[in-house]
Amino acid sequence: MFAGYEYLTGFATEEELHDELVRTIEGLHNLNLQRCDRVTMAHGLEARVPFLELDMIELGLSLPAGWKLAGPDQPEKRLLRRAFDGWLPEEFLWRKKEQFGDGSGASSVLKERMEETVTQEEFEREHEEIEPALRTREEVAYYRIFREHLGPVRPQRVIGRFATA
Asked: Are 65 and 58 in contact (CB under 8 A)?
């Protein structure tokens, strides 16, 4: 809700950015929150997500989207960073934002491993099985796992999508 992800820098107008932030928040239940819930509960833990409190979402979305647009002298999430100025070490507070999987190194490891299970020929044959079409060999690999374990569930109703592939 504070426009911290890199792909959000591509939105030129405040209205487009706001619409994307709303779409993203509304879709959190499709993937990110399910993952958080299942991974923590599998270990008997309950995750807390304070920035997703309803009051925080309302505040974040009520701020003009233009205040959130990143630019050459305007780092992403600058409003949130300023709110914590003096509370967090400078090297953490003002470092470049990275998605969790990228910053932790998990995304490249998972991508490589999953792509090993799908040949280019298989991708070409299978990627249009669902709508919208799967975009990468990695997505096909994850869809295969979904289909194997949850075959009767209609994927169009439950599968979310990352902003980028």
From this structure: no
Q: In angstroms, rounded to a whole number, what is the distance separating the alpha carbons of residues 5 and 120?
A: 29
The residue whose two tokens read 């934002």 is 97
What would you measure as the largest C-alpha separation in the chain, in angstroms?
54
**What is the dihedral sign for C-alpha 11, 109, 38, 131?**
positive
- Gap between the Cα atoms of 66 and 46, Å rounded: 35
Q: What is the mean pLDDT of the chain?
A: 85
Pull the structure tokens for residue 154.
């209609």
Check residue 101 and give its pLDDT.
Answer: 67
Tokens 């270990």: give the residue.
43
DSSP assignment letter at 97 = P
- State the Cα torsion 3-86-53-64 to the nearest 10°: -40
Rg of the Cα trace of the chain?
18
Q: Which helix (H) or strand (E) holds 76?
A: none
Contact 145, 137 (CB under 8 A): no
Q: What is the pTM of this model?
A: 0.61
